[in-house]
Amino acid sequence: MPMLERAEWYDIARDTNWTPKYVSPEALFPDVMTGAQGVEMAKWQCYDEPYKTSYPEYVRVQREKDAGAYSVKAALERSNIFASADPGWHSILKAHYGSLAVGEYAAMSGEARMVRFGQAPGMRNMATFGMLDENRHAQLQLYYPHDLVSKDRQFDWAQKAYHTNEWAAIAVRHTLDDLFMARSATETAIMLTFAFETGFTNMQFLGLAADAAETGDYTFASLVSSIQTDESRHAQIGGPALEVLIANGRKAEAQKLVDIAIARTWRLFAILTGPSMDYYTPIEHRKQSFKEFMQEWIVGQFERSLIELGLDLPWYWDKMIAEFEYQHHAYHLGLWYWRKTIWWNPAAGVTPECRAWLEEKYPGWNDTFGKCWDVITDNLLAGREDLTHPETLPVLCNMSQIPICAIPGNGWNVKDYPLEYEGRTYHFNSEVDRWVFEQDPIRYRDHMSLVDRFLAGEIQPPTLAGVLAYMGLSAAEMGDDAHKNAWVDAFRPDPLAKNAAE
Amino acid sequence: MALFPIISNFQYDFVLQLVPVDTDNTMDEVAAAAAHHSVGRRVAPQPGKVIRVRRQGAAEFYPRTARLGTTDIKPMEALEFIFCEA
């Protein structure tokens, strides 16, 4: 029997709208869950998903993708790629798995909300596949690191991170909860798929796959490529939703959602991807700096997507671009200094050769961040590693949940951005973080940062040891310098002194 | 006499830090407590200079002998610690 071409039946088959008889349309699709901003359902009929696929096609392709990824993993299981890779690469893997694997389940939940409450049949159809995608991503990214737990206990944090009160895990959870665990279908379409995925993760996964191949970790490269091809498909759910909102006079509302989501996503990328690209990746494997990456993909590509959709650039666009110069350097310094509080081993990445690269990519680095690293390096050379560990907590931003930090040394511009709200003082890393809070204070006001919890007596004993225990980090899991401070040997002028120190 | 948390924004350092001090502490003692977490760790010492305290964004420093409890500083307020000529 001849089969019809997909294009001949797709629009009819995926139109699953019906007229409810037993409940009102409002009860079936409450605005709080749809997030349709008052745009009536009929207006969503023009939603046109750019990527069309059927269930049989989807299953066939996904099966091939899974077979490909798993066969590469099986074929390389006995190779020594993992053992021979630089410890900095291991740190990238650990940070990636711990911060994203369980978050994929959160994304699945967000996709499921679009499946149920999406106003357009096309959105519901695409989100069905997106939901299945995210489930696959969670399972893949939990399974792969599980094999590595016997080699290195920190890989257990792929499973564990989200279930702890570790500060970086709180930061990721707080952001993802905001962008897609506690949002309506339309908000999720915009904040998860358009801002988070189109803007950042899709690009990030492309870059990560290339880095993995460059490092020789073909298992991870094939895993990430397999995921990225899903992302590039379901990330297209948000664009048509934005078009519907804009066409129906809801541009301001749409713009606000985009602005909040980009602001929040940028923080996560600055702390996870920034240090990975500019410090953890061995210098011989670096293709471009984090700043160059952001300028090419976010400013060059994503900016165009915003304009083409009829949106404006976020009001803070120039401020964010200015942060490309320094924010991730500050985050890296914080991650390294408070390394016992994270589940991976940050590579310092500040040998003389690395510093020359940083100075070339970020003119002025030596005069700013380099000043702090000078003191740290001198302490390590003097055998005072104790001074390279903290005796107190950094103050955390009440939006990003990441330490409030900026440029040190001769460019010193660190500043608190406080806000009084209902008798409580909140602290923010920037005007933008504070602006996000002000858009919906009731949504954010009750959250307690780790420092707030410490001051409220929720963490006992109220010591750094107590904080580490509260965060769930065992001695075998706490972070340390990825190279056990061996990088500092490059600063010892006399080879004999180097041998003596060993 | 009471434990009093402040936020240290130390000149040339990169991060805001939580520093527990006491309402009986003088500003010099508050500065010393803040310096403990920055100077010699990420900020190079500046021998011969003193560290003065001011409210974030203020031009004037608090008197060095002023006791914290007698000032208008609130708990968890960001204070700037600045190297000054002695």
Walk me through the structure.
The complex is a heterodimer of chains A (502) and B (86). Chain A is mainly α and 502 residues long. Chain A is built from 23 helices and two strands. Chain A has helices at 6-13, 25-28, 31-34, 55-75, 81-84, 87-117, 121-146, 157-160, 167-181, 185-215, 218-234, 238-247, 251-280, 290-308, 317-323, 327-337, 352-361, 369-381, 431-439, 441-444, 450-455, 464-470, 495-501; strands at 417-421, 424-428. In chain A, α13 (251-280) packs across α16. The longest helix of chain A has 31 residues, at 87-117. Chain A starts with 5 loop residues before the first helix and ends with a helix. The relative contact order of chain A is 0.10. The model of chain A has no long low-confidence stretch (mean pLDDT 93). Chain B is mainly beta. Chain B has one domain (3-85): Ubiquitin-like (UB roll), CATH 3.10.20.270. Helices cover 12% and strands 34% of the residues of chain B. Chain B has one helix and four strands. Chain B has one helix at residues 27-36, and strands at residues 3-10, 17-22, 49-55, 78-85. A four-stranded mixed β-sheet of chain B has the order 2-1-4-3, covered by helices on one side. Chain B starts with a strand and ends with a strand. The interface between A and B is medium-sized, with 37 and 25 residues.
Query: By helix and strand content of chain A, what is the structural category?
Result: mainly alpha
Largest beta-sheet characterization of chain B: 4 strands, mixed
Tell me, briefly, the overall form of chain A: globular
Got a strand count of chain B?
4
Oligomer: heterodimer
> At the first level of CATH, what is the class of chain B?
Alpha Beta
Sequence of strands across the biggest β-sheet of chain A: 1-2
Number of beta strands of chain A: 2
The CATH superfamily of chain B appears as: TmoB-like
How much of the polypeptide of chain A forms β-strand, as a percent range? Answer: under 5%
Supply Rg of chain B. Answer: 12 Å
Give the end-to-end Cα distance of chain B, rounded to a whole number of Å: 28 Å
Structural class of chain B: mainly beta
CATH fold topology of chain B: Ubiquitin-like (UB roll)
Widest β-sheet, arrangement of strands of chain B: 2-1-4-3
Radius of gyration of chain A: 24 Å
| Average pLDDT level of chain B | 97
The averaged pLDDT of chain A comes out at 93
